[in-house]
């Protein structure tokens, strides 16, 4: 019941065109099914094994997003079914997704992960590296992977102003890249920012996908 109530409450706050990815990592399949019965279809996981196992056991009309660091040798496990890989942090990974997408006759949507947090250990391209990536244009030559936008994780901090600044920066960067390199089409359209503690600020900065775990499912063990 609580899960359905949480979903209803959050959905009522979402502007048109913004999607809610329910981050189900460390939560049971029955918790996911509670959200599913309430009409939710978009779920996200950050570990390959857990994602594959949940995909195998749960209804096939669920749209799965991968949001955690992905090793190239694991891409083949996701390629048959994943909807969006949000955590692409290297050209090498992108080219492997292209290869595996080809093997399965698919074009896989991905987001480029941008490192916006102050913590050094987080993954992703810097703004400069991402700019070089788009300027280089090699990504556009891949037939089986499509760069559909950007993803970012803000600093883990109580400083709301810092988080807001990070979201505003990636929001500006996203719109600039879209105008400069994707002016002719709507394929570059997703900005995935915002988690349970900070999604209001992400929405203000132009988020199109928010990724919420604890706000929907409650606390998780890790
Ligand atoms: C766990 C996770 C989330 C969701 O976190 P909550 O604080 O529970 O909403 C969102 N994005 C990523 C990349 C995560 O790993």
Oligomer category = single chain
Unreliable parts:
none
Report the mean per-residue pLDDT as an integer: 96
Going by CATH, the homologous superfamily would be Alanine racemase
Instruction: Quickly give the CATH architecture.
Output: Alpha-Beta Barrel
CATH topology: TIM Barrel
What is the CATH class designation? Answer: Alpha Beta
Identify the strand order in the major beta sheet.
7-6-5-4-3-2-1-8
Bound compounds, each kind once, are: pyridoxal-5'-phosphate
Q: Tell me, what's the shape?
A: globular
Number of helices: 9
Total count of domains: 1
What gyration radius follows from the Cα positions, in whole Å? 17 Å
H-E order: HEHEHEHEHEHEHEHEH
Largest sheet: 8 strands, parallel
Percentage of residues in strands: 15-25%
Distance between the termini: 23 Å
Please tell me about this protein's structure.
- This protein has helices spanning 2-13, 29-37, 48-57, 75-78, 91-103, 127-136, 160-181, 199-204, 214-217, and strands at residues 19-23, 42-45, 63-66, 84-88, 108-114, 145-152, 190-192, 209-212.
- Helix 6 runs parallel beside helix 7.
- With 222 residues, it is of the alpha/beta class.
- It starts with a helix and ends in a 5-residue tail after the last helix.
- The chain has a single domain (3-212), classed as TIM Barrel.
- It has an eight-stranded parallel beta sheet.
- Helix content is 41%, strand content 18%.
- The model has no long low-confidence stretch (mean pLDDT 96).
- Pyridoxal-5'-phosphate (PLP) binds next to strand 8 and helix 9.
């Amino acid at each position: 019941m609580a899960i359905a109530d949480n979903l209803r409450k959050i959905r009522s706050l979402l502007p048109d065109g913004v999607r809610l990815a329910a981050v189900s990592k460390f939560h049971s399949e029955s918790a996911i099914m509670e959200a599913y019965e309430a009409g939710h279809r978009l779920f996200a996981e950050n570990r390959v094994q857990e994602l594959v196992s949940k995909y195998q056991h749960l209804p096939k009309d669920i749209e799965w997003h991968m949001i955690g660091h992905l090793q190239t040798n694991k891409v083949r496990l996701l390629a048959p079914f994943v909807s969006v890989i949000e955590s692409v942090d290297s050209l090498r990974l992108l080219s492997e997704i292209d290869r595996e997408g080809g093997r399965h006759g698919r074009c896989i949507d991905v987001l480029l992960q941008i490192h916006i947090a102050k913590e050094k250990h987080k993954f992703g391209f810097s703004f400069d590296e991402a700019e070089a990536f788009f300027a280089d244009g090699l990504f556009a030559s891949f037939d089986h992977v499509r760069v559909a936008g950007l993803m970012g994780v803000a600093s883990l901090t109580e400083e709301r102003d810092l988080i807001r600044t990070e979201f505003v920066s990636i929001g500006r960067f996203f719109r600039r890249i879209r105008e400069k390199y994707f002016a002719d089409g709507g394929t570059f359209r997703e900005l995935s920012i915002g988690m349970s503690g900070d999604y209001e600020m992400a929405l203000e900065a132009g988020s199109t996908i928010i990724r919420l775990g604890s706000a929907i499912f409650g606390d998780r063990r890790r």
